[in-house]
Amino acid sequence: MWYFIIILLTIIYILINTIFPQIYPFEINLLASSLWLILALFSLRLAQYQDLNILYYRKTRKWTLGQSPIHAGLFIGGFQISLLIIIGLFAGFGKNHYSFAPDKVLFNIIYVTTFLLGTELSRAYLIKYATNKRIYTTITFTLITLVFVITRIQLSDLSLLSFSNPSVLLEFLGGIILPAITINLLASYLAYLGGASASISYLGVLLAFEWFSPIIPNTHWTLLALVGTIAPAVGYTLIHSAENLNLPKKHHRRRLKTSEQGWTAVAIFSVVIVFFSFGFFGVNPTVIYSGSMQPTLNIGDIVLIQKTSIENLKQGDIIQFKKDNNTFVHRIYSNTADHQQIVLITKRAANAHPDPNQITSDQILGKSLFTIPQLGWIKILIQNTLRDLGAPIG
């Protein structure tokens, strides 16, 4: 009977992403809320029929992170929101795009509540069913999680995806897919430990901030993705460590198999970031140390530079080039042909006149894809600290 849950999830996803967008927003909320409520009630009825407890956590031992998995979910959700607020304090806040008219707020509350009930009761049922059938392996855990990752991806996002545009592809994978995976992995783990109430406590905090906070951080997607990846990873680590400290040794192996291998995805991502940082994917992060390109680029910004040829550059592009064993990031002022080769004239944003020297193809390191504001200050502060301590800086 478990497959009826998957079928219902699929139907709801298709309706919300294809047919419902053609209806007025007022009716979308009501119809979508009705479908999520049906899924929630069906999951509860199915669980009762099979004598599965999917709503509440099991009170079998002392809980280290708070008093229960519910408290753990609230704590991790609050921690994640706190990180977003800290980012907002540095990068600034923007107005939430959701309407705060009284009737719209009411409809949004209904939708968020039914969405949480539908997704988390069905998630808890699938995980509990797999556990009881002793098929709770890393593969089944991962597959269940991926089902709910898909529910957070809109078809409109896929329609904008362009494999020929590296920046769009990177934003989709890093800004949408990766946080959805890590957040849902933690939600699935909480549902395994404490039922739907535990995963609802975590996701409820996140959705409440997303939908009902009048202001949200107004920053680059990379910083939001970083919080959406690291916060649930830290939360999982805390819970998992506490779990194994409180369990008899004979249970450790089974617990470890439940999701530790699933979190290998986070470790793989970390490795990818290392390769990315060293430019093995054709994109190099570069920290801005001077104010010569203000206000376009500020000190502490990170510019992602993609390797390219001089033939693909045009006036107005921001490029990185080398000169006298130093690297610079300036904007192209003009490009001309000189002795059958293309040469560039660059200009700093802070200067009224272009740079005096021409740039040739052998000096080009790459073109700017986009900028991550202020994140480079971490590296600058570390380097300054090492310099004050007299340590060598590589």
Structure description:
This protein has 394 residues and is α+β, with helices and mostly antiparallel strands. It folds into two domains: 2-277, no CATH class; 283-388, Umud Fragment, subunit A (Ribbon). Helices cover 57% and strands 13% of the residues. The chain is built from twelve helices and nine strands. The protein has helices spanning 2-19, 25-49, 69-91, 102-132, 138-150, 155-159, 166-194, 196-212, 221-246, 249-259, 264-277, 377-388; strands spanning 93-95, 215-217, 283-287, 302-306, 318-323, 326-338, 341-347, 358-359, 364-372. The strands form two sheets. It has a seven-stranded antiparallel β-sheet with strand order 3-4-9-5-6-7-8. It has a two-stranded antiparallel sheet with strand order 1-2. A hairpin with a 2-residue loop joins β6 and β7 (341-347). The model is unreliable at 245-262 (pLDDT under 50).
Determine Rg (CA atoms, Å): 25 Å
Mean pLDDT: 80
Shape by Cα distribution: elongated
User: How can the largest sheet be summarized?
Assistant: 7 strands, antiparallel
Number of helices: 12
Unreliable segments (pLDDT under 50, ≥5 consecutive)?
245-262
Tell me the count of domains.
Answer: 2
Summarize the amount of helix as a percent range. Answer: 55-70%
SSE class: alpha+beta
Q: Which range does the strand content fall in?
A: 5-15%
Strand order of the biggest β-sheet: 3-4-9-5-6-7-8
How many strands in all? 9
SSE order, one letter for each helix or strand: HHHEHHHHHEHHHEEEEEEEH
Q: What separation lies between the terminal Cα atoms?
A: 60 Å
